[in-house]
Amino acid sequence: MEWEKLISELLKYHRGKLIGIFLGLVFGLLTAFFGFWRAVFIAICIIVGYVIGKKIDEHKSFKNLLEKFFED
User: Rounded to whole angstroms, how far apart are CA atoms 35 and 64?
Assistant: First the structure.
């Protein structure tokens, strides 16, 4: 089986599993290198960055997002 076809099928049918494995590996390495709480902090920063990037990709106003987050 060709590598391109194998990778294509893996991404098509097992995308969630591959992402889960990758995230688990990254978090495990972060924990080993930096400790648990620092790894949690890094993971939170990544999640916040993802959410902000997703809003920007969806052409939603970043200003409105900040106003909604910091409402009185």
Answer: 35
